[in-house]
Amino acid sequence: ETGVTQTPRHLVMGMTNKKSLKCEQHLGHNAMYWYKQSAKKPLELMFVYSLEERVENNSVPSRFSPECPNSSHLFLHLHTLQPEDSALYLCASSQDFSGDSYEQYFGPGTRLTVT
Amino acid sequence: TQLLEQSPQFLSIQEGENLTVYCNSSSVFSSLQWYRQEPGEGPVLLVTVVTGGEVKKLKRLTFQFGDARKDSSLHITAAQPGDTGLYLCAGSPSSNDMRFGAGTRLTVKP
Fold first, then answer.
1. Mutate which: A43, A45, A74, A106, vs B, most B CBs within 10 A
2. Are the Cβ atoms of A106 and B44 closer than 8 angstroms?
3. Can you tell me the mean pLDDT for B36-55?
4. Which of A15, A66, A93, B22 has the fewest Cβ atoms surrounding its Cβ within 10 A?
């Protein structure tokens, strides 16, 4: 495997379910990100991890809970979601989260539908 | 109002035509990135521009960073159907902050 992988690619869940999204990067990067991409809206940065520590949480509701057990893996735990949380969830990584350049490498995303 | 404004939002052209899309801001960026995203996939990094006035070429794609580092443009020469996608610009206006524009959705018809 190369690059950034995400599983599952598609997920349908009810509002009372608990599920997790998984991201893995094979690039030796130190920073990982979760983004939400909704129709007709810009990419929204949700969380940033640098060297396995969370450095950014952009006012994301607590029903989204990230976890970064090591620099290669990132999870997004979901519980009691709302229909408006339906979106494409993208994971990305970059060499570092510092300096002025944040060249990011994205996974293919998980298309989430909340029913 | 978004920090990075991209225009046009939508663009549909015939194969072989030239086009330019824009990314504008009132803020200064130390660098800007351009990405292309195809349906059902994540964005793919095309280029990073760093120096004001910089021009970078990637085959038929020409990227320019404004002198004041507040805007950037992407020019495609002789567009091909394979150029179809969502073009996103992104940049960091300050430390620990990363912003994306809403994108330009390009369709190139054969």
1. A43
2. yes
3. 93
4. A15
